């Protein structure tokens, strides 16, 4: 979908709502921070409420082109920009210890989602998004996967809603659970980084844990594990893309009714390119440019990626019937719950088997 002048009003509406959602995500009431909910969730909820009150708003000629552009293209740009926050060298060095846990939890979530899809007979696209969102990095993984499998806005909204529910529960419960079952401080960092979906919720859980454990370093270690886990976006989206190409070619028959350029997720290559740029800058000698890049540019790109995701979630919310979403929500929530419990148990079990369970941050 190409940008046109007709897209401007809809894009501006999404920017406005994303700004409100971002502000709401920064609010604190005593010891309670709304950061655990996050701007993307606020944005999608505001969008759905507007559509509930004014059903024709998103489909109007004035706003529809821009809303559609935001839900598709801005979503892909958000994933690309997210690549600038990934230094592959740092992740390989610090995150390698957590790799067995990451591989096992991701595999578990995808397998459980597939099994539950067969048992519950749920939509395959929603099941894929919940499985990927639960296993990799919540909203970012859903944002990367949705264009590849051609999920519509309602399917994305349903998946985001499920992931959000268990993100909040994990952020509130896991710090106390980890302390209660005797997880070491490093063990908890890996637990938070592998068993909590969204970065904001990982941050909230790890920050609470630092207070409970009385040590610093849990937050930075948990975020590094989470970023390592984010790299799984690359193989997962590529596998899904090739699977779609295989099916399209197979069903196309002699007419060869598929277009490689349309199906392949080119934006993932730009995501990889962005992370390579950050990695190269990271190994260069210290300079004013390197300091500016790592301290200012990367921070700005992280913020912009989150803001773009909030914009896209707003657009998706504007295209979603919240009443219909609630009516169809039972099976996806059960699937999300099953994935969440399975990931939690596997993360703890693998840490026990690998000896990480009782380790502490020096």
Description:
- The protein is mostly helical.
- Helix content is 76%, strand content 1%.
- The protein has 17 helices and two strands.
- A two-stranded antiparallel ribbon has the order 1-2.
- Strand 1 and strand 2 (32-33) form a beta hairpin.
- Helix 6 (124-135) runs parallel beside helix 8 and helix 9 (185-195) runs parallel beside helix 11.
- The longest helix is centred in the C-terminal third of the chain and has 31 residues, at 288-318.
- It is globular, with a radius of gyration of 20 Å.
- It starts with 7 loop residues before the first helix and ends in an 8-residue tail after the last helix.
- The mean pLDDT is 86.
Number of helices: 17
* Strands, total number: 2
Strand order across the biggest sheet? 1-2
| Largest sheet entry | 2 strands, antiparallel
Q: Alpha-carbon distance between the termini? A: 51 Å
Strand proportion, as a percent range, falls in: under 5%
**Alpha-carbon Rg, integer:** 20 Å
The helix-strand sequence is HEEHHHHHHHHHHHHHHHH
Level of helix content? over 70%
Assembly type of the chains comes to single chain
Mean pLDDT, all residues: 86
- Extract low-pLDDT stretches: none
| Protein structure class | mainly alpha
Give the CA-based shape: globular
Topology:
Elements: H1 8-24, E1 28-29, E2 32-33, H2 39-53, H3 64-82, H4 88-94, H5 99-120, H6 124-135, H7 139-149, H8 153-180, H9 185-195, H10 199-213, H11 218-230, H12 233-252, H13 260-263, H14 266-283, H15 288-318, H16 322-327, H17 330-354
Antiparallel strand pairs: 1-2
């Amino acid at each position: 979908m190409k940008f046109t002048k007709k897209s401007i009003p809809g894009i501006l509406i999404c920017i406005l709502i994303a700004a409100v959602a971002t502000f709401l995500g920064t609010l604190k009431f005593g010891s309670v921070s709304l950061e655990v909910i996050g701007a993307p969730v606020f944005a999608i909820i505001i969008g759905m409420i507007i559509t509930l009150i004014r059903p024709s708003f998103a489909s109007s000629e004035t706003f529809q082109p821009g809303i559609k552009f935001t839900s598709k293209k801005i979503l892909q740009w958000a994933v690309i920009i997210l690549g600038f926050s990934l230094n592959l060298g740092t992740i390989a060095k610090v995150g390698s210890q957590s790799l067995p846990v990451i591989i096992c939890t991701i595999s578990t979530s995808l397998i459980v989602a597939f099994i539950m899809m067969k048992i519950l007979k749920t939509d395959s696209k929603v099941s894929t998004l919940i499985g990927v969102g639960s296993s990799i990095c919540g909203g970012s993984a859903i944002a990367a996967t949705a264009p590849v499998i051609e999920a519509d806005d309602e399917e994305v909204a349903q998946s985001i809603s499920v992931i959000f529910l268990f993100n909040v529960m994990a952020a509130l419960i896991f710090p106390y659970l980890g302390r209660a079952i005797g997880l070491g401080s490093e063990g908890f960092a890996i637990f938070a980084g592998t068993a909590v979906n969204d970065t904001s919720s990982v941050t909230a859980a790890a920050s609470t844990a630092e207070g409970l454990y009385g040590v610093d370093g849990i937050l930075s270690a948990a975020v590094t594990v989470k970023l390592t886990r984010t790299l799984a976006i690359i193989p997962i989206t590529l596998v899904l893309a090739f699977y779609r190409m295989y099916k399209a070619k197979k069903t196309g028959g002699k007419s060869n009714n598929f277009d490689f350029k349309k199906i392949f997720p080119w934006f993932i290559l730009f995501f990889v390119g962005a992370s390579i740029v950050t990695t190269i800058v990271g190994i260069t000698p210290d300079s004013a440019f390197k300091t500016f890049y790592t301290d200012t540019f990367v921070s700005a790109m992280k913020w912009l990626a989150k803001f773009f995701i909030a914009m896209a979630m707003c657009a998706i919310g504007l295209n979603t019937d919240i009443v219909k979403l609630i009516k169809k929500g039972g099976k996806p929530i059960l699937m999300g719950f099953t994935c969440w419990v399975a990931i939690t148990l596997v993360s703890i079990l693998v840490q026990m088997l690998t000896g990480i369970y009782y380790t502490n941050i020096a």
